[in-house]
Amino acid sequence: MSLSLIIVHYRTGEALARLAASLAEARPRPVREIIVVNNSGEPVEEFLAGAGSAWPVRIVNPGRNVGYARGVNAGIRAAAEGDVLILNPDVRVLQGSVEALVQAADAHPRAGIVAPRLMNADGTLQLSARRFYNWRTLLLRRIPLGPFVAKSRALREHVMADWDHATTRRVDWVLGAAMLVRRQAMRDVGLMDERYFLYFEDVDWCQRMGRHGYEVLYVPEARMFHDYARSSAQLRPRSLRAHAAGLLRFTEKWSALVFAVSQFRGRLAQAATLVVDAAAAALACAAAYSIRAALAPLSSGKPFYPPAAYRGLFVFTVAVTLLSLAGGGLYRRGAFRDAIDRSFRLGRAVLVAVLLLMATTFLFQTPRYSRLLVLLTAPLLFLFLNLGRALLSGLHLGARRQGFAFQRVLLLGSGSEMEEARGALERSRSSGFEPLHAGVPADGSELPEAAAVRLRTLIESERIQIVCIVPEPAELPYLLALASALRDSGAAIYWAGSLARLMPTSSARGIQPLDAVLLHAPTRGLSLRGRKRASDVFLSLAVVPWRWRGLRRHLARSEGAMGAGEAWRRVWSGERSWVGRSDYERARWEGVPAWARLALEPIRPGVVSPADDDGRERSARVEAELAYLGRFSIAEDLRIFLRATREVGR
Predict the structure, then answer these.
(1) Is the pLDDT of residue 384 over 80?
(2) What is the pTM for the complete model shown?
(3) Which of 67, 110, 115, 430 is deepest in the core (most CB within 10 A)?
(4) Fold category of 3-254 in CATH
């Protein structure tokens, strides 16, 4: 195994010099090159003089402090070797330590990350292998209770103080100060999450490795010193802020509760917008009343009432404003292209609302519906609505820029176009996308059923929101069948690559860095099978009794005809659906490709098939029924059933 050694440097010159000296003394044979990501921008060549004569040294200059995770990723992308060894500058390598890591990695093929035993400067054990956080350990590590916290059983279990660290074993996660990482694991799992600036990136990476089926391995035979001089050991305000931000991102990503809430973030954003608009309208009314009160001495002879007298007008103003905004489509996602478009569309909605309010004052001739108050409200309403929407937009963009509201994209495919898609998503991490890749052999080496089960498990464990297939022509049938089998996984399914460009331009598109076509929107609520059952119940009770004669005629024309009563019984018992696929079981699925069977088998055979108009050609029936799965709805079932049971000649 050959390694590229990656070091992220930020104002750690002395530590970097000690690391270089230890490397020159240990001379680890697997290392082929040293890559230093220079986040501080200062010259570092003098600190690497000791190691520069033994290995080629390359300096990557991002131009600014991009953080630890992004720095590591920059080094990985620049690496010439397949596997990488990541070391902090405050680590000192001992002779044979790197070789021990490589030997352990070779002995454990499923090890994605292999970590050494880290020691303090005095040679004592550093507890660098950990169990995953829970709410108790997070709380104990953050409250200032000193020795009482150190004696906590939960905290001791978290840092694995109950283990002697003398044997090689699989652990939950390890400190990112020193880790050997396999290239294949990085390809499947993805690189470090660049939304983390300095903290929790190592916990997150190990968590993802485990969920993807890779091991995190602790190897005590590989010994290194860790001086822990990184800023993580210094309680400075900037460090504390970065730690808090990392914790928030980690919670957003892995908390089941937060993830469940995030699935409805579109609805929550609409609700927040509605509340802000209502507050803006109420504030505009209050400001208009204040101005009207200030003008009261100038309007001689006209009565002026206390605020309670205008309560009805204010409530009506808020209601009319919200209705006008909703009627203008201003609660839809992505309603505005830019600030100018926002101002014009809000101005139009305010104009409609004010005209309605003025019309109301003429319809209901009452002095307490002040036209002057309405006129004063109009510009204030426009101003406050604009300010409120701008504030929400700023919060949204800030959250996206900081990496919150991210979306995980699982890429399926094996060709060059898939690699291009992966690269585009990697470059667009700041837009909220995190790419992963799953190997799916379309050559028959893995049964489609097994691949679907594996991918469903991966989608659930990794909490993937988007599945994007980027097929080569030979992979298209297999991957489309897998996409169909994943319809109820909770993920949106897209199709990208050159083949996707054949779709009509009117097709829904998404995934901002890619030209991707939406194949299936994520399912909320009932599964496909559940919605099919709801369709059957609806047709059984509300439609079939009125189409009984047509149903009998249809069944009489079918092979192996059953009676209408028998058909109703089978549907009601769950053996069949009113509209479904052909009964391929009778022919043992002869002539149906395995990938098509994967998509069709979960659906019950139908009394009526969407392919009945296509004759008895097997390939035509399969194609029609697969197309039906893509557009299924209760309305579609009703249309197909009514067409099949119409009485000819009536």
Answers:
(1) yes
(2) 0.58
(3) 115
(4) Spore Coat Polysaccharide Biosynthesis Protein SpsA; Chain A (3.90.550)
